[in-house]
Amino acid sequence: MAERSEKADAGGRARLRALAAVDEVLREPAALELLERFPRELVVDAVRAVIERLRAGILAAGAAGEASAAQAADLTPAALVPWAARLLEAAVTPSLRRVINATGVVVHTNLGRALLPQEAVDAVVTAASGYTDLEYSLVRGARASRQDHVHDVLCTVTGAEDALAVNNNAAAVLLALAATARGGEVLVARGQLVEIGDGFRIRIVGFTAEPALEELAGLAHERDAVLVDDLGSGALAGLPMFAEEPALTESIAAGADIVTFSGDKLLGGPQAGVAVGRAAAIEAMRRHPLARALRIDKLDLAALDAVLRLYLDPARALERVPTLAALAAPLAEVHARAERLRDLLTGSGAAEALPLGRVALLETVARAGAGALPVTEVPSVAVAVSVDGDAEGLAAALRVGVPAVVCRLHDGRLLFDLRAVRDAELDELASAVLTALT
């Protein structure tokens, strides 16, 4: 044992001596090409990082008396250049990547929640690529409020007296409480303590009851208090599956002073928080010092404005807002999409087609996601692909491919739920699956 340890130590020292120095790597022709493409400081940092990683690997393996990738690697200056090149490419490539969502969760929190309709994307490009009248009245030639862009349309689609948009719904609730509680107590109904992200999640099912919003409004107003109704999801569309979600217009009509909701859940817009309600309560929020710290930024404001205007025509909103379109798509449409993907995977036109016996259609259940409609099951269809070997490894390969694909695993099979996959993504999805599997 001692002899083997001594040999490992000697081998490690030899490997460390063989490890190229920074200046040796930088003199390589391929490194000179990198210096032409990237700032010298960045290239030097990348080379140093590669060398330090290899040195650490050699030392760690020597201490454990084991072989490692660092010990087996070619440590010549020329061999280290491609490693540095990969680090440099990663450094200058934006880290946010497009993902094909084949999980069946439409508003997937970890995958960016709601997709924006094209109208909102165009509005964001306009706001990002030039100057805009964000806080300027072109008519009066004077300063104005950014809230003017969404105020009227919010009041129109919700029936509220006044409206305010901030950067997310948590901010809307915080601002509502800070502006109206005035340091006093805040009474929270027990039934509202059930859906808080991360640390606390309870679902109450069975014989439960809660007071009607009209009763709470009457109780609050008798005591000169303010009633805040946090809806969270902000469902404005009249979809049958939204029947279990509290309706915005109903909350306003019931007498809630402030109603808050998210822009990027069932509304199908950008990350934003919206507060609508009685003029006095919303005005108190608008004048509170926190309002500036929590204000919505111009890109989200542009997207929210475009999405809200689609709701002026409910039928158009159902057609154009991707979240609504995905949730409302008839099962037959999802089934046809699944058949198309199956054909792409098994058809003769594919370079590496899968055997038909490995690919099957499976009835599944999709979800709205992001805490919305927690008990509502949305019928869906998935393409189930049987694999030989490590299904988790193949799923991981799909996640790091181009484009990235996130799917589900079930009984050792890869499941590609088509509820949230768009028609335009089918060819790319099929290509990614075939590449990973073949």
If you had to describe this structure to a student in words, what would you say it looks like?
With 438 residues, this protein is α+β, with helices and mostly antiparallel strands. It has 3 domains: 2-92, no CATH class; 118-320, Aspartate Aminotransferase, domain 2, CATH 3.40.640.10; 327-437, Alpha-Beta Complex (Aspartate Aminotransferase, domain 1), CATH 3.90.1150. Helix content is 47%, strand content 13%. It contains 19 helices and 14 strands. The protein has helices spanning 2-18, 22-26, 29-37, 40-64, 69-72, 77-92, 118-129, 148-158, 169-180, 213-222, 248-254, 279-287, 290-293, 298-310, 314-320, 322-328, 331-346, 391-399, 426-437, and strands spanning 99-101, 136-137, 142-143, 162-166, 195-196, 200-201, 228-232, 258-262, 273-277, 359-366, 378-386, 404-406, 408-410, 413-417. The strands form 5 sheets. It has a 4-stranded mixed sheet, sandwiched between helices. Strand 2 and strand 3 (142-143) form a beta hairpin. The longest helix has 25 residues, at 40-64. The protein starts with a helix and ends with a helix.
